[in-house]
Amino acid sequence: MKNRTKIALLLLSSFGLMACDVATNTSPKTDPNTTAQTAVVSEASSSDNVTKEKVETTKAEVVMKAKTTSDGKLILGEQEWVYIPGLKESFKARVDTGATTSSVSAVDIQPFERDGEDWVKFKIEHDGINSDEIELPVERWVKIRQSSAEGTQRRAVVVAWLQMGDYKAQTEFTLADRTHLTFPILLGRSFVNGVAVVDVSQKYIQDKHKE
Questions:
Q1: Residue 43 domain-assigned?
Q2: What domain range is 173 assigned to?
Q3: PANTHER family, alphabetically (predicted)?
Q4: Would residue 58 count as lying in a domain?
């Protein structure tokens, strides 16, 4: 009986040593399938980031290039640069579709006659820009009623060249002293209609002219 007990104890002791040895020496095994899946997920995530960056870049390029509509009209912001070729100067302009005619800041306005036609000479003055005297034929006269003054004012309307981005055209300008206003040029419906669409949420969409 005693011998049987000893044998049983020896067997239990040996089994415990073996179990302990297995537990100590066994290290986690790497599943090749799991490794491959991790690599695929990582690669897909990287690919998604690259694709997202490309899409965002493309969107940015579209926004930058969207200076005209699909039918060729200018896209204008609430404020734009206007280049006057005759003066070789760029001016900040406010785009106002509520105004009928465009206007430009003019001082020393003097009407005169030439060959029986109405002409006017004036200078453009605003924010440190003082042009030489300009002489142009009067296209027509308009009467302006101002809320701050009694009666009406008679103002000359002239035609002059302007450039916005790559677009060049002649348009009518009413001559008015705008030296007390922020913008020396106001672009009204007489210029915008049929030529441009206005996005008041943006500013300076068209490129400033460079000499």
A1: no
A2: 74-199
A3: ATP-DEPENDENT ZINC PROTEASE DOMAIN-CONTAINING PROTEIN-RELATED, ZN_PROTEASE DOMAIN-CONTAINING PROTEIN
A4: no
Of residues 187 and 6, more confidence is placed in 187
How many domains is the chain partitioned into structurally? 1
CATH for 107: 2.40.70.10
The 3-state secondary structure of the chain reads CHHHHHHHHHHHHHHHHHHHHHHHHCCCCCCHHHHHHHHHHHHHHHHHHHHHHHHHHHHHHHHHHCCECCCCCEEEECEEEEEECCCCEEEEEEECCCCCCEEEEEEEEEEEEECCEEEEEEEEEECCEECCCEEEECCEEEEEECCCCCCEEEEEEEEEEEEECCEEEEEEEEEECCCCCCCCEEECHHHHCCCEEEECCCCCCCCCCCC
For residue range 86-125, what is the model confidence (pLDDT) as tens digits?
Answer: 888 899 999 999 999 999 999 999 999 999 999 999 999 8
| pLDDT band, residue 7 (cuts 50/70/90) | very low
* Residues 161-206: tens digit of each pLDDT: 999 988 999 999 999 999 999 999 999 999 999 999 999 999 999 9
Please indicate, yes or no, if residue 128 is contained in any of the structural domains: yes
pTM, two decimals, is: 0.66
